[in-house]
Amino acid sequence: MTKQEVDFDYILRSNLERVFNERDDDKRRTAIDDLFVEQPVMYEPTNIVKGREAISRVAGDLLKQFGPAFRFVPEGAAVGHHGLAHLSWHAGPEGGPVTVTGADVAIFDDGKISQLWVLLNVR
């Protein structure tokens, strides 16, 4: 798969839904295997997370921290080219007020996320 053939929107939306909204650890690990390279790196505002298992743990802990109704929702379509893509999102309790907004920016390698920056908007 060449960089031009990557469906950035599908992969980044899948990352939100299948990784960061998934409460089942096994399903989340399977999704990470599908979407990320073997040794991905995720850059959070206050942390650098290395490896698939660590990313799964961060996502699971985040969901536990914010409760069962908390969800990430994509805003618009992801855009990208030449192996770099961006997807805006908002999050909060399902049907409730938005508590955080941000964006994911990813670098892709062979059709999978190799590096992911989680950018939070200051409110």
From TrEMBL:
Pfam families given in the database record: SnoaL_2 (PF12680)
The residue ranges of the SnoaL-like domain are 20-114
What domain of life is recorded for the organism? Bacteria
**InterPro entries xrefs:** NTF2-like_dom_sf (IPR032710), SnoaL-like (IPR037401)
- Name recorded for this polypeptide: Nuclear transport factor 2 family protein
